[in-house]
Specification:
about 625 residues; alpha+beta; Kinesin; 9-stranded mixed β-sheet; 17 strands; about 15% strand; elongated; binds adenosine-5'-triphosphate
Length: about 625
């Protein structure tokens, strides 16, 4: 299907949608099937549903161009998703077919297959030969078929037909065709000739994978079939059609394994190219993007003339039914479809555990005014019981309800939805709620201050030592720090609320903040209690933290970490000392490396020196407490 896009130059261009097919592979073992029900299932030839991780009584329904269920044969996948685009190659047009999905979900099976069940690649190449030989001689064209085979590993283009070659450049000629100078191109005389070259080259890749551990699923394998047709008569016009058949790197979240070193670099490269591919597919299919970001990764740069534009493209997203693939399946489906529908219906009646973050749930319950809480509790109770005897299907949700998995799901959803709608609203709601709480604390603080002044006056009036002792005794147990009091009378009035406020940590923080900022002449001594001599500026970076309640300090740090990990550009810019450039650098870092596991990771972001980081922390913690 073609549609019109307006380019950055304002010129209207015709561009093709990428057809998206999803293929669900069957269970790999009987036992798996017996133990667990599937977490995803097909509804018809275009729709499927997956359990909603936020609420297992709901499913999320997706619509695709084609859905291939577990029983779909290799032949059926080829006939419905690939064969229809092949005739275009003979007319000088380009096409691409790529298999996307997590490791083990069936990409290689779909693209390569086995001797008994050949996949898309052998079927497509055979079909191209058939189409060429079926061409009528009288049409006046000569056809030639050739191949190149390469992989993109760590953003390097490597020639699989000449395995000793180095990283090859990608160029674009004046006609906007993408070329790879130095890439081996082999002319093929027949399908068996193709086999002769393709199989050893594939083995090259497999050998490398054994040596380098998992390299195969960590590189994108790209087979290029070129059909060149030349007019026999003058002016001997020549047309070239290109077909890219791509087995993409596994889309699983490589971060989960705690990758380091070479693995981290690989996962960064894979994330970058798959993320760019998703943006390109999205831009092509939404028809709204002014610029399609082909140049942002080697993969998309290479596929530029065969993905979108006048090219015909099909993405086959491979998914697996097992629960252990849930996160990868969910993210693969979100990659493939930008729209989805939440359906309020249990997926399977037995598996109605609710893998929802406790925080989130309490807010939902609060909003629902407590209604529905009882069945919910009962469900959990039942679930607990059956877990104990080991028979609960809800045990599948264990991995889903792990905080790290939940966090990644939330982050993923935010990324997919560009931090919009419900999540944005809930963040805003949280902020509004926090502001309200802080306001209330400020009110209480003022009240304490008034009382303190009153008490101080009373203390002055009653000079009896007995009374004074009693007064001190009442307050002593709540006192957190014994300041170096030189003028007790003046300080007492202000110190008392501080002591009382320690009943509630947040209140205490508000007090410290308020006092350290609003220093009047009279209150100067107080600020000296909270801050060391020499003032705030000269305070050692660590010493200001030690003045604060640790639990609230931790809470503030968690909040900052949460924003760093899940905030969109606007939310990041809402942090102190984070401008547009830094916010973008943070987003970029997150894109490549994943979550910040601790706040100190921020120093890995470009231009965030240790000094800037310390100042960032101070400003944000004080701000979080004092707003
Ligand atoms: N539709 C299917 N029918 C039968 N078996 C399948 C199907 N899809 C995948 N398999 C089998 O599942 C296993 C994993 O599939 P495959 O190797 O294709 O996954 P992959 O996504 O390519 O993984 P990797 O990224 O590691 O290359 C293989 O044994 C494969 O034969």
């Amino acid at each position: 299907m073609a549609q019109r896009l307006t380019g950055a130059d304002g010129v209207s261009k015709k561009t093709s949608r990428v057809r998206v097919a999803v293929r669900l592979r069957p269970y790999m073992s009987r036992q798996d099937e017996k133990d667990e029900g599937p977490c995803v299932r097909g509804l018809d030839s275009q729709n499927l549903e997956i359990i909603n991780w936020r609420n297992a009584t709901e499913t999320v329904k997706y619509h695709f161009d084609v859905f291939h269920g577990e029983q779909t044969t290799q032949q059926e996948v080829f006939l419905s998703s690939v064969k229809p685009i092949l005739p275009h190659i003979l007319n000088g047009q380009n096409a691409s077919v790529f298999a996307y999905g997590p490791t083990g979900a069936g990409k290689t099976h779909t693209m390569l297959g086995t001797a008994e069940q050949p996949g898309v690649i052998p079927r497509a190449v055979r079909e191209v030969f058939n189409l060429v030989s079926a061409k009528d001689e009288d049409e006046g064209w000569d056809y030639s078929i050739g191949m190149s085979y390469l992989e993109i590993y760590n953003e390097k283009v490597l020639d699989l037909l000449s395995p000793n070659s180095q990283d090859l450049p990608i160029r674009e000629n004046k006609d906007k065709n993408i070329l790879i100078p130095g890439l081996t191109y082999t002319v093929l005389s027949s399908f068996s000739d193709f086999d002769k070259h393709f199989i050893p080259a594939t083995l090259n890749r497999t050998t490398a994978s054994t040596k380098l551990n998992q390299r195969s699923s960590r590189s994108h394998a790209i087979l290029l079939i070129k059909v060149v047709r030349t007019q026999r008569a003058l002016p001997h016009r020549q047309q070239t059609g290109k077909l890219y058949l791509v087995d993409l790197a596994g889309s699983e979240d490589n971060r989960r394994t705690g990758n380091q070193g070479i693995r981290l670099k690989e996962s960064g490269a894979i994330n970058l190219s798959l993320f760019t591919l998703s943006k390109v597919v999205d831009a092509l299919n939404s028809g709204t993007a002014a610029r399609i970001p082909y140049r942002d990764s080697k993969l998309t740069r290479l596929l530029q003339d065969s993905l979108g534009g006048s090219a015909h493209s099909v993405m086959i997203t491979n998914i697996a039914p097992e629960y252990r693939y849930y996160f990868d399946t969910f993210s693969a489906l979100n990659f493939a479809a930008k729209s989805k529908l939440i359906v309020n219906k249990p997926f399977t009646r037995e598996t109605v555990a609710v893998p929802v973050l406790p925080v989130k749930r309490s807010r939902e319950e609060h909003e629902a005014g407590g209604s529905g809480a009882e069945p919910h509790k009962k469900k959990q109770k039942d679930e607990k019981k059956s877990e104990q005897d080991g028979s609960s299907p809800s045990a599948h949700y264990h991995s889903l309800s792990e905080p790290s998995v939940m966090e990644r799901l939330i982050a993923l959803e935010k990324l997919m939805m560009s931090c919009q709608d419900k999540d944005r609203q809930s963040v805003l709601k949280d902020v509004a709620q926090s502001r309200k709480e802080i306001q209330e604390l400020k009110e209480k603080q003022r009240e304490f201050e008034r009382k303190a002044v009153l008490l101080s006056q009373l203390a002055k009036e009653k000079s009896s030592s007995k009374d004074e002792a009693a007064f001190k005794n009442t307050l002593a147990p709540l006192q957190r720090k014994q300041p170096n009091v030189t003028k007790p009378n003046k300080q007492q009035a202000v110190v008392q609320p501080l002591q009382v406020s320690q009943l509630q940590p947040l209140q205490h923080l508000a007090v410290v903040r308020k006092q350290s900022v609003c220093v009047t002449k009279k209150e100067k001594k107080l600020s000296e209690i909270v801050e060391p001599p020499g003032g705030k500026e000269n305070m050692k970076e660590s010493s200001w933290e030690s003045q604060l309640d640790t639990s609230v300090l931790d809470e503030s740090k968690q909040k900052i970490l949460h924003i760093l990990n899940t905030g969109c550009l606007k939310e990041l810019k809402g942090l102190q000392q984070i401008g547009d450039k830094k916010a973008k650098l943070i987003l970029g870092w997150r894109e490549i490396h994943g979550h910040f596991t601790k706040l100190e990771d921020l120093t890995n972001v470009e231009s965030m020196t240790q000094k800037r980081f310390s100042s960032f922390m101070k400003a944000n913690i004080l701000s979080a407490m004092g707003k």
